[in-house]
Amino acid sequence: MEEYRVLLVDDEEDIRVGIGRKMDWTALGFALVGEAENGLEALDLAEALEPDVVLTDIKMPFMDGLELCRILTERLPAAKFVVFSGFDEFEYAKRAIRMNVFEYILKPISAAELGGVLRRLKDRLDTERTERQNTEALRRRYEESLPVLRELFYAHLLEGRVPPDQAAERAARLELDVTGDAWAAALAHVDGAPDRELAALSVQQLLDENLALEGWSCRAFLYGDAAAVLAVSRDGGSVYALIQALDRVCALAESYLGLTLTMGVGAPCAGLGELAQSAAGARAALDYRGLVGAGRAIYIGDLEPGAGVRISFDENDERELAGAVRLGGEAEVREAVDRLTEKVRRSGLAASQCNLFFLELLTCLLRLARGAGLEVEEVFGTGFTGAVQATDFSSFTAMGAWCLERCLRIQALFRRQRTDSAGQTVERAKAYIREHYGESDLSVERLCDHLHLSPAYFSTLFKRETGMSFTAHVTVIRMEAAAEALRNSEDKTYLIARRCGYEDANYFSYVFKKHFGVTPTKYRAGAL
């Protein structure tokens, strides 16, 4: 098993050396990966080393051990802390407990005592690691969640949020048998129920108990604030047998529950991944209840004979296309556009029958452009009015090529905008640092409040753009200012330290020597 990484923090060198040499780290299951002589230095090391365990003294200059634990608890939430101190004070122990410290040890520390603590700590870490990796435990949790996951899957099918080529695979993962000849969706609507949630539960139960019919396998589930049915036809089950069974459930709802239940039934579709088309038909059927009467099953095929042949630019299409444009490369955009073009081609519809699909796709592109603050003419050309239709293209291939060109243009503008924005953000950060480096409370959190960014995102962005962390950059700015003051003024070192953001002159000298290799006094002497 991989060794756990340990960071040792103590301002007394002989203690660090003693602990480092006396402990058989490998035998205990640990590796000592770093040492620091104060809390501030430990913060920088922890960012780079990401230790599993931090062994730290409490009483240290510049930052005490408990403050270090408090900060690292936020930055490294999985890390464990062992605190030691020569001060047998109950208040320290109470604070250590609040910091989720694993153990509090009083100095002097013996190898035997620390070894015992590390063995207990390893047991804890092993247990946590095993729990995370225990596939049987994960499997049990997964199985407990299956009913919820299945209902979520059904809902996503009705909303078109499952890619057609993934529908069967996802159903199999959820241990669902959805094999069949055709698939249909039915949606419930209850008029005048005082308690909609209770009514939905009652309708779901009624559907579960009364939809056993030959040729169909039906699953009722809660959907929004009502109920829905996913029906799978096997051995050529007739859609009219399904409608008749749903009609009977509507009558039972009136008799048993005193509810006026209307079921909208969509036209059967040829693939599980196309169930959203049937659901769209079911919703349209419910719209006719004022015309044909509520309290019964209404089949869209009776009212709109061509309702079985539908194509829509659904939520899943929009999510895939938007994701490719925003986050993918040119290949991903081409693949997304090709999928949409093929979807239209497979429908077998003429271009004149695909105008709604094209309009929805065009609306998606407009949302992408406007959401990023792009000018519409930048994307669609000068004089664009939005009056583009599927019938304007000679073929679906030509329509796909037009969409591809616009998507790639939006993507290129996105990238330029992101690059410019990242550069501007970092420059604003640098300017803020130059203006406030002399303030001892300057921190990444304070800067991010000013920039309205999350510290995690900003830290990644700043390091990517500058090659160094926020802390390292602030230190460079402060050291450059300190060096200039030492060269060009006769001010006392402690005054220069304060002007550069260091309240503790000793810590200033420590950082200065670490940065330049000499103390401030020797630096000034060499500059004269």
Structure, described:
With 528 residues, the chain is α/β, with parallel strands linked by helices. It folds into four domains: 4-133, Rossmann fold (3-Layer(aba) Sandwich); 152-303, Alpha-Beta Plaits (2-Layer Sandwich); 315-417; 437-527, Homeodomain-like (Arc Repressor Mutant, subunit A, Orthogonal Bundle). The chain has 24 helices and ten strands. It has helices spanning 13-22, 25-28, 39-49, 65-75, 90-98, 111-133, 135-158, 167-173, 196-210, 239-257, 275-286, 289-292, 300-303, 315-327, 330-347, 355-371, 376-380, 396-436, 444-451, 455-466, 470-488, 493-499, 505-516, 520-527, and strands at residues 4-9, 30-36, 53-57, 80-85, 103-106, 182-191, 216-223, 226-233, 260-265, 297-299. The strands form two sheets. Strands 2-1-3-4-5 form a five-stranded parallel sheet, with helices on both faces. A hairpin with a 2-residue loop joins β7 and β8 (226-233). α3 (39-49) packs parallel to α4 (65-75), α15 packs antiparallel against α18 and α16 packs parallel to α18 (396-436). The longest helix has 41 residues, at 396-436. The chain is elongated, with a radius of gyration of 34 Å. The two termini are 57 Å apart. The relative contact order is 0.05.
